[in-house]
Amino acid sequence: MAGRRRLLPCVGLGLLAVLCWVWVSFASLSGDQLHLDVLDAPDRGAFQPQSALSDMEFASVASYRGPGNSDRRSKRELPILLWWSGGLFPHFPGDTERVDCATSSCLVTSNRKVQLYKRTASIIFYGTDFRAYEAPLPRLRHQTWALFHEESPMNNYILSHGPGIRLFNYTATFRRESDYPLTLQWLPSLEYLLEPVAVSLEEKNRLRREGLAPVLYMQSHCDVPSDRDRYVHELMKYIEVDSYGKCLNNRPLPEHLEDTATATGEEPGFMNFVARYKFHLALENGVCPDYMTEKLWRPLHQGCVPVYRGSPVVADWMPNDHSVVIIDSFPSPKALADFLKRLDENDDEYVRYLEFKDPRRITNTRLLEGLDSREWGVNDMSKPNYLNGFECYVCEQENARLAAERAYRKAPQKTQPPQGKMASNSHMGCPLPSPGYGDIKDLPADDGWLQIWPQDYWQSLDQAEGLESLIRHNESDPSLLWKHIQNIAVSRARGKH
């Protein structure tokens, strides 16, 4: 498949072996520009994970001035926020806009010509597009960097390493610890969860008697870090699974649903089709705390039981402690299959997993408070979307920082210098990918997953450390990244890093 990188044999020991490995990294990264960048256009959609932004509705709304905003400065006086990823600029139709937030205002733009301006206070990056070899250098002392990354960790593992995430001062990610958390980005509302069961248990049992499998699997992104297909393949040995899409396919989709793009939205025909199943295998493409997508929320909405693997702390956000089957609670695929068979045969036990449809049975206060307190909405035109929300968060932070700096310069004996913010691993860090089933040491050397994702993870660490080194040396040419990576590798081999 296009975009895969193979581990090349390196002959030698010690420093020679390290330099050989570094050369392989250069060949993979500088030539391919990372595995997602080399895919032909038709393959991109099939390979890349979906983003919640895909379904978000945007509207061009008049500037709103918060009740505490008395900022009367002209556009020429306001601090500038630069959206480095212009395609995400949340304003239409131009490339520059004044934003009036709760207590202060900023000028926001996607025009990179302002990168080196003194008034440009912060640069906002979209994590999926952030590449170490394209970073805006030199990094100016008066500028902060902000990260918006709601997508899968697989899109950019640089952000899962300390040297990568520490580059940023403000963050909006799926992790609850980020400055502007997007944890519930795929859950539109509490009412979405409370929708009545789409297909009754009586109808599901009738369909089961007619030959419908108890378990649904629907995936077309097959080569992913979570290695989910390997687990599902093993599970299929012990329980019947109807698998549609491109991955482990064993059932054809009805002709009117053959365009699997319908699976990325909530097209009624598709929703009615999948709602017939008792259990939905809901395995994320990446395993990381708080990374939860529609694979989890949609079955809950429909009144099906998700069989879930993804966020290891998923229970923190579930309606109650009996609404999802967590794969990692079982010692083996066979044990999981035996449990699902028992639920399939016992209506009373199965229905317990759907009791949260009664709002009185939603007992998780973290979920309720999270939905109630978030200032942004999902397809809710009465609230800002989270792009505009994060933009205003950065604007408020920068105005406060600039005011604190002015106060300190004016009276250094009476005021404290502003304390800088820095992101940490808790804002984004995700673990090294591991096999979906079995032990990594038992995989053959030519295993396709093994050749892609562990390598990608560690090469991303090289890039993160290389970019950190570029910034530390005040470099202005990002093409020197490879030289810095090589120097780091040599120092590491000599025990100096």
UniProtKB/TrEMBL annotation:
Keyword Repeat: no
Pathway note: Protein modification; protein glycosylation
Signal peptide: 1-27
Subcellular location: Endoplasmic reticulum membrane
Transmembrane annotation, as ranges: none
One GO MF term attached to the UniProt entry: alpha-(1->3)-fucosyltransferase activity
InterPro entries in the record: Alpha-1_3-FUT_met, Glyco_tran_10_C, Glyco_tran_10_N, Glyco_trans_10, GT10-like_C_sf
Keywords tagged on the record: Disulfide bond, Endoplasmic reticulum, Glycoprotein, Glycosyltransferase, Membrane, Signal, Signal-anchor, Transferase, Transmembrane, Transmembrane helix
Compositionally skewed regions (Polar residues) per UniProt: 413-427
Gene3D superfamilies per UniProt: Glycosyl transferase family 10, C-terminal domain (3.40.50.11660)
Enzyme Commission identifier(s): 2.4.1.-
Catalytic reaction annotation: L-threonyl-[protein] + GDP-beta-L-fucose = 3-O-(alpha-L-fucosyl)-L-threonyl-[protein] + GDP + H(+); L-seryl-[protein] + GDP-beta-L-fucose = 3-O-(alpha-L-fucosyl)-L-seryl-[protein] + GDP + H(+)
A single cellular component GO annotation: Golgi membrane
Region named Disordered: 411-437
Domain Fucosyltransferase N-terminal: 79-181
Domain Fucosyltransferase C-terminal: from-to ranges: 215-365
Topology of this chain in the membrane: Single-pass type II membrane protein
SUPFAM superfamilies registered for this protein in UniProt: UDP-Glycosyltransferase/glycogen phosphorylase
Chief location category: endoplasmic reticulum
PANTHER family, per the entry: ALPHA- 1,3 -FUCOSYLTRANSFERASE, ALPHA-(1,3)-FUCOSYLTRANSFERASE 11
Family: Belongs to the glycosyltransferase 10 family.
Record function comment: Protein O-fucosyltransferase that specifically catalyzes O-fucosylation of serine or threonine residues in EMI domains of target proteins. Attaches fucose through an O-glycosidic linkage. O-fucosylation of EMI domain-containing proteins may be required for facilitating protein folding and secretion.
Protein name, entry field: GDP-fucose protein O-fucosyltransferase
Record organism: Xiphophorus maculatus
